[in-house]
Amino acid sequence: MAEHGWERFRRFLTWYDLVDVDVVTQAKVTDRGLVEWRDSDGTRWRLDPATGERGSSTAEAEPSGRPDDPWGPRRIRPAEAEGSPDIWEVLSPDGTSVLTETEHDLALRDVNTGAVRVLTRSGSALRPWRANAQVLSLAPTPPVFSPDGTRVVSLRVDLTGVDHYPLLDWSVSPPRVDMRAYPVEAGSGMPDSRLAFVSVVNGEVTWSEPMHRAQFIPGRWVGDTAFLGITCSPDGVLSLLRVDAATGAAKVLARERIIALHCYLPAALSAVMTEIPGFDGYGWTSDRDGALRLYLVPADGGDPVPVTPPGAEVAHIVGPTADGGILLLARTDLDHPYDLRVCRTDAQGGFEILTELPGTHDAALLGDGSFFIDTHSSRERPPRADLRRCGGAHVAVLGAADVGAVTSLCRGAAETFTVKADDGVTDLHGVLYLPPGFSPDRSYPVIDSIYAGPQTVAQPNRFVGPKRQSRSAWTHPALLAEAFAQLGFIGVVLDARGTPGRGREFQEAAAHGFGTVAVRDHTAAIASLAAARPWLDKTRCGAIGLSFGGYFAARCGLLAPETFRAFVAAAGPYDFGTMMPGWFQSLLGTSFPDDPQAFADAGLVAHAAEIRSEVMLVHGTHDTNVPLQQTMKLSDALARAGKQHELVILQGATHQIAGTHQVFSLETAARFFLRNLAPSGP
C-alpha cells in the first residue's frame, strides 16, 4: 500500500477537525428588533431584518460556558451516559439559589452567601437523590424548578439489586478499579426511579404513583401544579403522563407500543416539551398510521388528533411560532426519504414545507418566534445558515462554513444508489465511495460500514455530522466508508430494514427477525451492486461497525461468510442475556425469562463455533454503554471453539473510541482488512 494512501486515510479520520459546523452561535433578537449572532471566527454581527443592513457588532459577547460567579451553578459530576452533558446545579427562577447535591441528598445553596440548606435527608448510595436528571443523551435537561420556584422535581434512583460492573485501569500501579451500577446478568435488578416533588420551603416530599420499573423521562411543568413526562416499559409501551405535584396522582394521556426507545424518544419528548399555541393540551408523536406524525392530545386525555400529513415522518418539534404555528423538522420526500426539511403546522393541521434544498435542515427559533435560523447542508453542499421568517420567507444568509481544508483531501467519486431489500420489494438507499484513481478495468474489494441499529440512520444526508455528536470516525459509518476508500476499497453505507426514519412498516420489518433481516438486506444489496458493477468483487467483502454496528458486522460474518470474508466488530453487544436484557425485550418480542433461547439465537456467543469469517474484536476498558464483558465473552467462546481471531483492547477508551485510540484501532482494522481482502491500492 503506497504511503500516500495511508496519509489520506489518516486525514479522513480528522475530518471533524477540518470543518467547524457551528456556522452561527449565540444568536438573539435585540430589543430594537435586530438580529445578532457570532460567526465561526468569533466575530459578532448585527442585521436589520427590515432593511437587510448588516455590520459587525460591538455588543458584549454572551459567555459561552457556565457562569464564573463563585456561588453560581457548578458542575456536580460527569455525565452518567457517554454523549450526555455533565451534570450541573440548577438555578432557581428568581436567580437567588441553586439546587445541588450533598453526598446523596438534595440541597439549596444561596448564590450570594454560599450558605447550603439540605432539603432531603433520606438519600443513600443505593437510593440517591438527583438534582438534575438526564436519562438519555438525546433528552434535553428538564426544567427542575416549578415556574413559581416553590417546588423542585427529582428522580429518586433505586439501585437495589443492580449488578456492579468494574472499569479497570491497568496503566497505573496498583491497578485502579471503579465500580459502576450496570445490570450485566439476567438475574440482576434493573435501575428503578420514582418521581418526587420536593418543597423548597420545608423539604416536604410528595411521591408520584409507582412507575413499576418503567423508565421515566422527565418532560416539563404545566403551570405550578403538574408535571409532564414519558414512561417506557420493558415490553415497549411508551406513555405520556401528567403527574399532579400536590398529590402525586398520575394520569395516562396517550400510549404507544414501540420497538426501540431511542428511535421514538427524541421526537416524542420534543413534542411534549412544546407548548401548543391555541390548544388546551399537549404535543405527542405516534406512528399508529404508518409514519411518525405529530398529534395533539387534549388536556382531559381525549383521542389524539394528527396535525401533520401521513406522508411526513416527523423527526423533531422545534417550538411554537409567534403567529400561532408549530415549527418542526420532517422527512417529506418519498424519493429522497432521508432528507430533512423545516416545516410548519398549527392546531388545525395547516401543514406546509418551508425549505426546499436537499439534504438536512436544522432550525432554531429566535426571540418571540418570528424568525428562525435554518442551518442546512447535504453530502456535497457545505453547511450554511440562513435567517428566515417563520412563515418561510428568506431574509438573509448569515454565514457559511469554511471547508477549504476539506478540499485538500483527495476524495474519490461517490455514487448514490437504490437497490431492493432481501424481500425483493422494499427500496434501500445508500452511497458507494470509490477510491481515488478508480478504474472500471480493475477489481475492488468492498468494506461495508454498517450500523443497522433501530435508532440511527447511517447514510450521509448532511455535509458533516453535528458537533454535539462524537468526533470519532467510529461513530460515523459514511466517514468510515470513505476513509477505507482511500486504501483501495469500495466503501459502502446503506440503511437496511429495521432502521428508523421511514415509517412503522420499515422499522418493524426486523422486529421478530432482529439480527437476521438486516444481514440479509446488506447481503442482497452487495449482490445487486456487484451485478451492475463488474469491478465490485462481492467475494472479497468485509464489514466493520461500532456498538450495534459491531454486533451486525459480526452477524454478517456469522450468517453470510460467503460474502463477508472478514469483519471488525467494535464494542458490540454479543450476548443479550448478559447486557440489560430488558432493553432488548421489545426488539425480540419476548422477555429473557420467557424465552432465553431467543436471546441466545439473536446473539453471537452461543454461535461462536459457527463463525467461519476472519475476526477482529475491538473494545475499550472504560466503555460504560456496552461493557467490555461482551467482547471478552465472545473472544472466550471463539477460543474455546478453536477459532483464531484478533483481539484489540484499548486501555481507558470509552464507547465511542475517540482520540488516539481511534487512530490506532482503525489503522489496525485497516491492516487486518488489507491482509484478508488484499486490494491493489493506489
Spell out the blueprint of helices and strands.
Elements: H1 3-13, H2 15-18, E1 24-29, E2 35-39, E3 44-47, E4 54-56, E5 75-77, E6 87-88, E7 90-91, E8 97-102, E9 105-110, E10 116-118, E11 151-158, E12 164-169, E13 176-181, E14 192-199, E15 205-207, E16 215-222, E17 226-232, E18 237-244, E19 250-257, H3 261-272, E20 281-286, E21 293-298, E22 305-306, E23 313-320, E24 326-331, E25 341-345, E26 352-353, E27 360-366, E28 371-377, E29 384-389, E30 394-400, H4 404-407, E31 414-420, E32 427-433, E33 444-449, H5 477-485, E34 490-494, H6 504-508, H7 517-532, E35 536-546, H8 548-559, E36 564-570, H9 585-588, H10 596-602, E37 614-620, H11 628-640, E38 646-650, H12 659-677
Parallel strand pairs: 33-34, 33-35, 35-36, 36-37, 37-38
Antiparallel strand pairs: 1-2, 2-3, 3-4, 5-6, 7-8, 8-9, 9-10, 11-14, 12-13, 14-15, 16-17, 17-18, 18-19, 20-21, 21-22, 23-24, 24-25, 25-26, 27-28, 28-29, 29-30, 31-32, 32-34
Helix pairs in contact: 1-5, 7-8
